[in-house]
Design goal:
The complex is a heterodimer of chains A (674) and B (253).
Chain A lengths: L1 H28 L6 H18 L4 H28 L4 H23 L17 E4 L2 E4 H23 L1 H11 L1 H6 L4 H27 L3 H17 L5 H21 L5 H8 L1 H16 L12 H5 L3 H4 L8 H29 L3 H25 L7 H18 L4 H22 L5 H19 L3 H4 L16 H24 L1 H11 L1 H6 L4 H26 L10 H14 L4 H21 L6 H15 L7 H14 L11 H4 L20
Antiparallel strand pairs in A: 1-2
Helix pairs in contact in A: 1-5, 1-8, 1-9, 1-10, 2-3, 2-4, 2-8, 2-9, 3-8, 4-25, 4-27, 5-6, 6-8, 9-10, 9-12, 9-19, 10-11, 12-19, 16-21, 16-24, 16-26, 17-18, 17-19, 17-24, 18-24, 21-22, 22-24, 25-26, 25-27
Chain B lengths: L5 E10 L2 E11 L4 E6 L5 H8 L7 E6 L2 E2 L5 H6 L2 E4 L11 H8 L8 H11 L16 H13 L5 E5 L7 H16 L3 E5 L3 H7 L2 E6 L2 E7 L4 H13 L6 H6 L4
Classes of the chains: A mainly alpha (674), B alpha/beta (253).
Chain lengths: 674, 253
Amino acid sequence: MLQFVIAGLVLGGIYAIASAGLVITYTSSGILNFAFGAMAFFIARFYYYLHTQESWSIAAAAVVSIVLAAPAMGVVLYFLLFRYLRLSAPLIKVVATIGLLVAIPSLATLAFGNQAIQQAPGLAPEPVAVYQFLGVPVTLDQVIVYACVIVTVVAGALVLRYTEVGLKVRAMVDSPAMTGLSGTNPGAISVGVWAVSTFFAGLVGVLAAPIIGLDSGKFTVLIAASLAAVVAAKLRNLPVAVLVGLAMGVATSLFQRYLPPASQWTTEIIDAVPFMVIALFLVYSLIRGGRVGDNEGWGGVLDRAITPQGESRLAGSASGTVETASVGVVGKYAGPLLLMVVVGALPMIVSGYWVGLFAQAFAYAVIFLSWTIVTGEGGMLWLCQITFAGVGALTTAQLASNHGWPVLAAALVGGLVAMVMGALVGFLSIRLGDLYVALVTLTFGLLMENLVFTLPTFVNQGLGLSVNRPGFATTDLTFTYLSLLVFVVIALFIVNFRRSTTGLALNAARWSEAGARTSGISVVQQKVIAGSLAAFIAGIGGALIAMAQSPFQPAEFATFQGVVWLAIFVTIGVRSNVAALIAGVMFVFPDALFQYYLPSWTTLPEILSVLFGLGAISAAKYPEGALAENSRRLRALLQGFRPARPGGEPPGDLGVPVGVAAVSPAPRISEQVS
Amino acid sequence: MTAPILDVVSLDVRYGQSQALFGVSLSVAPGTVLAVLGANGAGKSTLARAVSGLVRPAAGTVTFDGRDISRLPAHRVRKLGLTYIPEGRGIFPGLSVIDNLRMAVAQERRADRPQAIDRAIERFPVLGDRRTQRAGSLSGGEQQMLALARALAESPKLVIADEMSLGLAPLVTESVFEGLEAARQEGITIVLSEQFVHRALAMADHCVILTRGQVGWSGPAAEAGQEVIDRYLGEAEAPPPTPAPAAVTAGPP
């Protein structure tokens, strides 16, 4: 058993360092860095490049990659991105770091080449020395991991507790504004913290590479696992994060020891250890009652007072009512209608291959609509819509192909199954703060992906599943219009949903949950309704995708792929139906166009994902999305030609003078594209 | 008259789309006490935040000790000798009392810091008994003592004290005012924003009354009596254009 504990401490140590890095940036800047794994991968790849490809010595390669390049990456990203994110809404913070998650591995491929790497050396010289410790063989690589864990924990604790720098970091965790008022530059502390955090990322990367291999996907999964420790630490408690990280590693190792090795369930249970930690936390917090928040955990009263509140949230707009007066009904609906007509006409004009792509684009657009409800209207940051889509697709395939159901009825049931799951997820996560909701839904997605989507009946020996299209829409063109019809029906439903009691209640709850509650709105009920509707829509979208690109693999509904979808959608505008349509087209076509016309350009997919990533990062600047931003500019331009209103505006009308910004009126979000 | 130590000219401040201050001008002579009065939401805290560099003004200038500080961030302003005790409690609630004081003197030369901390504790002996306690767990009065101790530890030239008596018992309020009075005796200029109007006026040399983000009245504190009732108390209950008589009878709730 000791042998397994010692082995488990290696993985646990890597979890521990990663969760420490995640916790320190969260507590000091309010940003949970989803790109931590991507950063770790980049530095690990850089180390491999220096040490193996360029034959540098271990010491030189380690110093340049971990000690110099990793912190430098943190500093650069701080100045380019993170410092602007400090006061952003949780959604924007998540999406911007997801943008990095998408872009960084592709940058690594562009910089270091795309050769497949089977075996990556660690920090120990090859061949790796093996020692005996209490009768257990221990490799030098493992010893190095233990040493790194001990050094980082001890040094970190000493620095934080006893040094002036540590005092300033703790002060900034308490309140950046008060730190500034005490004469310490909070920006300088932030840079330092980011540098330390990316140093940890680099260390994790180089330590983990020999164990998990140099694969950016595996790094992302590794960090998703570390997030469990971060959640257990309630995002803030460094010692708890480190301990839970270590414990997860040991638990994984013990499961390997005591579960029957031949069973397929063993690997799945082992993969699911981090998610069990999150599930335990969730159950515990549900039993204990009360709200597990994250927003109130960051900064002090003064920090919130000097932040214009409405701008710092994914705040609601007044759902189109604000600017309608000046734009008029025609102006409000002309743009979306025109776009629908143009997009709707395109499948008639193009031919063959391209028509089928439109069918896919519209199916994706349907899935994106589910975010319009759950995130755009409900203000809930759900990262598992792709899982609901997968559930819809798999259910449809099972019922239609194996049980002979009519495919549309099967799709409807697929949507309903997803809806039940959505209601469950909504109910379980109802008392959690925005960021916890994101993490829990991400976990749910990963669990489904690992435990359910991999079942033999779905994988079908690698052949995937096929779904026949309905009899009246077997050609690409008819099926494309069927998809478009589904999109339009759901979009119209959403337009009405916004005006419904539930829609208004959600809008109210998005601005102020306490305020909504005191107005007699059952926030729980409304959010569960929104979540299940969204899951239903995603399920239907998944069924459409299954029909559009049959046969399909369950693995196509990988959770992180869905997170990339969300990043694309938010870039264009999460509150808009039209944006969903554009996002669907954007997701399918650039890749297809380049593959068709420039098939020899092999680095293209990498460049595209860098561009997608950068797009998501731009959400930091335009939280309402590119569509809203551009149509605002267009309107401003058009209004520039109108005569100015006479008389100017007296101070008392322009803005209510406020002493406390916390009560400042919400900014007017001028765009609501229906 | 000597040159003002703090000179604010035509200051505009916005939070997002809403404007909180409209062309506010005032000046403070060295060693004097200025009382800034006004109803809730009149812009007192915003004025203090803009002067101390927490919020960047949209227009106008702030000159402190002969230097334009309108665009300086808060930590630079503090280093020049202007200290702001924000509304609520100007402390780090998660840090211990001694760590709070260490943060306050972090700008001093390393060798001078222990004496600066000792002086602060001498001034407010109750803090000495609570060195290792979390500041957030102190009583309201003790927290304000700590805030004041922090502000005075580094011998500032000017202290802005924002609603320091908020939520304190009268006796405790009195000792906070004593602390401010002692600071004034040492020649520190004080800008005071206060809910206890008469207590503030008794201490102040000059007075500025803000109404809805603008300077409604300014002048010597001794002359502020009737104006205060008309503008400050009247505003709280009945905004213009309600005639004054109704406002006189209506006090703050």
